[in-house]
Specification:
Helices cover 34% and strands 31% of the residues. The chain has 68 residues and is an alpha+beta fold. The chain has one domain (11-67). One of its GO terms (biological process) is mRNA catabolic process.
Length: 68
């Protein structure tokens, strides 16, 4: 893991397709802006967990419907 100190407005380049910009900081939080080309999907980990939980719920409902 790479740890960096940056100030508001500073940018971090990841490859040639992704730019992270420090938007604000305070109250033990940092806000980042993410710019990427359209071919790169940007997802938050909590979105993935919600998608997995939703998929499990749908599969569970489908199996209940198959039993009746």
């Amino acid at each position: 893991m790479l740890l960096l100190k940056r100030k508001i407005g500073d940018r971090i380049l990841i490859g040639s397709d992704i730019v992270l910009t420090v938007i604000s900081e305070g109250n033990c939080q940092v806000r980042l802006g993410v710019q990427a080309t359209a071919r790169i999907a940007i997802r938050r980990p909590e979105d993935k967990r919600a998608s997995i939980l939703n998929r499990k719920s749908v599969n569970s409902e489908e199996s209940i419907g198959a039993e009746t």
